[in-house]
Amino acid sequence: MTVKSSTREAARLEALRQYSILDTPSEQTYDDITDLAAFICDVPIALISMVDLNRQWFKARVGLEVTETSRDVSFCAHAILDKQMLVIHDALEDERFQQNPLVTCAPGIRFYAGVPLVTPEGHALGTLCVIDRQPRELSEQQKNALEALARQVVTQLELKRVSARLANALETIEIMEGLIPICSYCKGMRDDQGYWSTVERFIEQHADVSFTHGVCDRCMRQHFPDVATALLADDPAAATTTDTEDELIE
């Protein structure tokens, strides 16, 4: 059964990209969480799954050899459509999954419980899930523990993202603190490769900023005197402010 896409799918996928987690090597922190999930829930399989556009990729896994599967057959693709835990007690009795090849063939899923990994902005990137090859139930204590572990996964993702942003910010500061060659005539800037560009382009290359353009009062009077006179007529008080600004510039 093909899962319906979330109405916020484009934004969710963009959020997944921003975390830079897809196809990264295994990490002990995430491996430990899946080990704990499998132990607490007493199941043979536990996964941290990230749901990409056409696949689900496993950041950490216990009891499963493959590193990804098609999204079309993914239980987790259903789980991320809600913020609550998805529990399938017996997949053979659920019409959504009865004919799913993950149920009818290896690994022979019968039980599934997945907690969405929801970011602070509300995007479900994937799940922390536990799987069994026979029907079963989870106790309330097991459900609570699984939800707590899912929150720890999100915390780790956030820490990694914030650390990456801080590293980029520090790199930008180091660049901007250095000596920047500026043309004395056109005020263009020269980059590390020796190419000249505008101030706007140089800053956009080294910082996450964008520009909007206008004309200051001094340049307005110099280059567009008719417009400046008209504006002054509409707002006589602007004359005093403009004179003060000119004194500061000079």
Automatic annotation (TrEMBL):
Name of this protein: GAF domain-containing protein
SMART domains reported in the protein's UniProt record: GAF (SM00065)
Ranges for domain GAF: 25-167
PANTHER family: GAF DOMAIN-CONTAINING PROTEIN (PTHR43102:SF2), SLR1143 PROTEIN (PTHR43102)
Highest taxon of the lineage: Bacteria
Any matching Pfam family: GAF
